[in-house]
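User: I'm curious whether this sequence folds into something compact or stays loose and floppy. Could you predict its structure so I can see for myself?
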Amino acid sequence: MLESKNMDIDMDIEKLGTKDHPIILTKKITERALLKKHMPTSETPDFARFSKNSEYLHHVLNIIAAKEINADEIKLALFLYELYCFEKISEIELIDITLSIDNQQENPSPKYIYAKSPALEKVKKYLKPKTSFFHMLKKENIILDAPEQIHMYLTKLHDLGLLTLTTVPYGNDIPNVDAKCQGTRYAFIELNRGVINVKINRRWGMQKQEKNQTNSKEKNIGESQSIAGNAKAILKSRKK
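Assistant: Here's the prediction. I'll summarize afterward.
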């Protein structure tokens, strides 16, 4: 589970996410096992650093070509990027990852969660969502096979470098958190802009395959040279 670095601070967990003790957002440049596995030569999940293509909006191909991603995770990723492309969500968004339909009847206290970038001193406040992410999906008729796995799906998308995830500790939340959400209710998500404007669909696993092919080619050349050398040596000895 991806948790805020504030978890290391010796304080009451209920104070996290306040103005004095904001959530520290996860760094974009961080260790991501699946990205390292399927794009081994990429030192960073910031795809915007790759050479840009003259075209635009590559997120569909980039997402569906990603490795180890299931249908539910593809739906989530495409939904988030479509919202981002049409500016319905901001660069960093706070979402409710429970399975509740509508939170308007609840009385969250406080109404805001404070967070900051690990590299900046400025603290920003985020209004707690009135509706859950699950409700947003349902409203658009996007049905998940296992909606209770939303948290795990977002973690997978983080691990692939498609987004950066920071979960909010349980103690920050109002009572009666859904048990299926593994101790968290809210999460910050930051989408990777490079997924939209850089064509990376052919990069997934390509470097690893090319390396293997190169090694195989070098091995074949070495074996051929060795065989040729032995043949010359045999012919030379016969002439004597």
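Summary: Strands lie at 23-24, 92-96, 112-116, 124-127, 163-167, 186-191. Helices lie at 33-38, 59-64, 71-85, 133-139, 150-159, 194-197, 206-239.
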